[in-house]
Amino acid sequence: MAFLGSAVRRVVSAGWSPLSPFCRTSARSYSSELTKEKSVPYDKTLKQEDGASSGPTKPLPRSADVVVIGGGSLGCQTIYHLAKMGMTNVVLLERDRLTAGTTWHTAGLLWQLRPSDVEVELLAHTRNVISKDLEEETGLHTGWIQNGGLFIASNKQRLDEYKRLMSLGKVYGIESHVLSPAETKDLYPLMNVDDLYGTLYVPKDGTMDPAGTCTTLSRAASTRGATVIENCPVTGIQVRTDDIGVKRVKAVETPHGIIETPCVVNCAGVWATKLGDMAGVKVPLIAMHHAYVVTERIEGIQNMPNVRDHDASVYLRLQGDALSVGGYEQNPIFWDEVSDKFAFSLFDLDWDVFTQHIEGAINRVPSLEQTGIKSTVCGPESFTADHKPLMGEAPEVRGFFLGCGFNSAGKTGTNIYTYK
Ligand SMILES: Cc1cc2nc3c(=O)[nH]c(=O)nc-3n(C[C@H](O)[C@H](O)[C@H](O)COP(=O)(O)OP(=O)(O)OC[C@H]3O[C@@H](n4cnc5c(N)ncnc54)[C@H](O)[C@@H]3O)c2cc1C
């Protein structure tokens, strides 16, 4: 059995990676090469054998009012909301299958309280859509789990910040409670509270299921008249210059035909820069490796809330009777040459980068030290210079909209800002 605690000690003391003794798969490298490993906490993805080579799942229309490019979280949210606004002649084009990029392996954490009113409203909207609206509209459950969220304050300033969040939440009707260390221990008996000032507990926070959410969004959009086409890569974007010299989107090119359109929404995740290049638009985001590990079973963890320790830069996500342990890498690995052949793929985890999270996680839930690692999940995610997403019309070309660069918060929203 491989334990989290031993991983830290070995890395720190010996200066070598703990990877091989702690994983069930034997031959792995430390490069940023893609791996086809599917050791993720989902039994199923939407991938189908030979899916990408079988041609588009529907015939392409000759024209559309809007073409959304990319069938991840953002693309599916975008087409759903366009359809709900009453636009029916809208098309989503996904190169592979829905969720194939980053979305399929996301941790899916949704925290409702963020430091600005706009973010709080957007998150409330997202939560409403995935926990209520979609189920009412489609009869399908999105996979939403409401297990609550717990923010950790290990200094007074952080607790003051959480008190402000609680006040903000009150304005928007979001239930939250500031808990003392003793109350936190009652709620989460496995937690070390010795170094805590307090916590902020939000009972209606929870976890989204990426596949379930995207399938349901796409179903609801289709019911309202939108068209979702998979196995259809966009290979070019035609731009025209109008009579007064303004550049405008004209059409989207694919190997299976051209769709005339005045408007595209670039929801292509880490591939969004490539789509931008096709139209002469600069998309300022950077692709990085981002990761979490899934533990073996932990006795007593069932039904616990998700935990976010901002000072340790760590999160603990409930994963059935285990935890996913992740964080925000301070020395991330950049994905310099973004590959187009990466559907449903992962990178090997770099333990030298990841170890910083383990220490914080073990401090918070000490039983993790003796807990084995079941699998690792390291995928690509886009980050921007100011940690804000790229949204709205690009200045270079009229009709070319961006919905990308979500800084590891894209699963939670239609339009979400980040709070790291
Ligand atoms: C390990 C990890 C954990 C995370 N945890 C969380 C979390 O807890 N909460 C949270 O909110 N966020 C989290 N995130 C971030 C979140 O998963 C992403 O922000 C989100 O999934 C991005 O969605 P997207 O639609 O922008 O991109 P993607 O899911 O990558 O979708 C882009 C799609 O575009 C398609 N595409 C690309 N090029 C083309 C083309 N030429 N033509 C047609 N289609 C194309 C791709 O195939 C892909 O399906 C996490 C990310 C990682 C890596």
Automatic annotation (TrEMBL):
InterPro entries: FAD-dep_OxRdtase, FAD/NAD-bd_sf. Residues 41-61 are annotated as: Disordered. One of its GO terms (molecular function) is sarcosine dehydrogenase activity. Residues 41-50 have a biased composition (Basic and acidic residues). GO terms for cellular component: mitochondrial matrix. Residues 65-412 form the FAD dependent oxidoreductase domain. It comes from the Eukaryota. One of its GO terms (biological process) is sarcosine catabolic process. This is FAD dependent oxidoreductase domain-containing protein. It comes from Echeneis naucrates.
